[in-house]
Amino acid sequence: MNSQEIRATVSLAAIFALRMLGLFLILPVFSVYAKTVPGGDNALLVGLALGIYGLAQSLFYIPYGWLSDWLGRKPVIIAGLLVFALGSLVAALTSDLTWIIIGRALQGAGAISSVLTALLADLTTTENRTKAMAMVGASIGLSFAVALVAAPTLFGWLGMSGLFSIIGLLAVASIGVVLWVVPTPAAPTAHSKAPFTQVLRHAELLRLNFGVFVLHFTQIALFIVVPHLLVTAGLPITAHWKIYLPVMGLSFVLMIPAIIAAGKYGRMKTVLLIAILCILFSQLLFAEFPPTLWWLAGILTVYFTGFNVLEAVQPSLISTLAPGARKGAAMGIYNTVQALGYFMGGVFGGWLLKNADYHTVFISCAVLVVAWLIIAANMQCPRAARFSESMHRIDRGN
After folding, report:
1. Among candidates 312, 342, 318, 341, which has minimal Cα distance to 330?
2. How far apart are CA 139 and CA 20, in angstroms?
3. The pTM is what?
4. Which of 70, 152, 312, 366 could form a disulfide with 238 if both were Cys (CB 3.0 to 4.6 A apart)?
5. Among residues 310, 279, 309, 284, which one has the least CA distance to residue 295?
6. Sign (positive/negative) of CA torsion 174, 176, 182, 186?
7. CA nearest 222: which of 295, 118, 300?
8. CA 336, CA 30: separation in Å to the nearest integer?
9. pLDDT tens, 67-106?
């Protein structure tokens, strides 16, 4: 990587990490906190409060991505961060579940992940893009680990309103990083942009879009169930970090050789399929094995190893395969489907837990992952950086 690529990757990874830290601070404690507010005994409403963020995002990812292709990445990113901060403020000023749902929806309306990823693709070469995406994925994973460790303690000190306030402040801090640290890319020329319908119909992008839907469906459904399983296994919520911290650390270590194989040795498809199998096996293990602390820790390690790898590989493939100068639009569609998975995982995970049991939640997730595995098995992936660069040159010619 050259100096600009390093600066772009580190600064954008920091923005991702700051913003995602705010989101992740909610996950480990919200389902337990919700029981203390009116309506919080309804698992469906709790799932809605978690998942509405994803539904709101799904409405804005494509417009934001499309606008960023035409107006520039930075103005759209700043606008989205301001909306996100406003939603955090609304949620911080209430203890009513309905208003928390409204605040979460406003947070989701600041849907800038697609624009951030497109900006990273603008500022890195195809040879270094998977590495850059992996660094972003690692920063997100690190923020996830920090949140899982810090959330119970911060919740005990500050309450849920305090957590939402921290989230808003992190969004404001991210604006400063965008303005003064992130490099500004050259604006793409208008004639190089492929038709939007070409992005929608692209077969390989469709496979990746389905994959990210399933991935985030399983993530949010998992966090409706797992905190309760840990409590049932005898670990109080303030001590959940004792499971999450080693799990995330080990999953990062296991991710490194997979990323090297995918990027340096051109094993994208193999790594992709193995990571999907990790997600599948984890769902089956969650459903069938007793919820003891050792088993939960082991299964979470399998899940997050696959999850972290997919969070790096799939966006890299999206930005490489996007036709013309349509990275923003392609990432917008990708993140829209991701957000819908987040929403549907929250709503249906909550509904299944309310009307059945946690076994049913995980078996349902496993069925979705099997469908994903079948669809991904026929995918045509770039085999190496040289192939990716040739595709990039062809796209520029379009």
Report:
1. 318
2. 9
3. 0.74
4. 152
5. 284
6. positive
7. 300
8. 24
9. 888 888 999 999 999 999 999 999 999 888 888 899 999 9
Structure-token pair, residue 259? 């990323």
Contact 107, 92 (CB under 8 A): no
Tell me if 123 sits within 8 A of 4, measured CB to CB: yes
Rounded CA-CA distance 121/138 in Å is 17
The string of DSSP codes covering 261-298 is: HHHTS--HHHHHHHHHHHHHHHHHHHHHS---HHHHHH
For residue 380, give the DSSP letter.
-
Q: How many residues does the chain have?
A: 398
Widest distance between CA atoms in the chain = 61
* Dihedral (CA of 60, 61, 64, 66) sign: negative
- The token pair that represents 52 in the structure block: 């509405």
What does the alpha-carbon distance between residue 12 and residue 2 come to, in Å, rounded to a whole number?
15
CA distances in angstroms from 324 to 62, 280, 319, listed in the order given: 16, 34, 10
